[in-house]
Amino acid sequence: MTPKELILEWVRRFNRGDIEGLAALYAEDAVNHQVVMAPLHGRSEIQRMFAVEFGRASMTCIVEAIYESGEWAILEWSDPNGLRGCGFFLVQNDQIVRQRGYFDQLSFFRKHGLPVPDSYLG
Length: 122
What we know:
Elements: H1 3-16, H2 19-24, E1 26-34, E2 40-41, H3 43-56, E3 62-69, E4 72-78, E5 84-92, E6 95-103, H4 105-111
């Protein structure tokens, strides 16, 4: 699977709220570093993050563009509330081994009517 194909599958699983399916796309020792929090190390930490996030809000990823270069895919996205962001995914052996994401977390909380938590993952 190409990096672009893998990220399109990531988007499908994200939009279904398929937490286990999303986690399965990551290597066991993957690193996910969203700009709003410390890096997460390993599939289980990444799965926990998705569980927390989908527990907070109903989320939809609208693909604005996907770029691919070698082992990398870059996803530009928006959501129905007007939030925008991008993610960089390093894909090796048909799994995400590194992800870096950029978006405005405060806007996410405000657009979903959520209080700002003391700790990102509660």
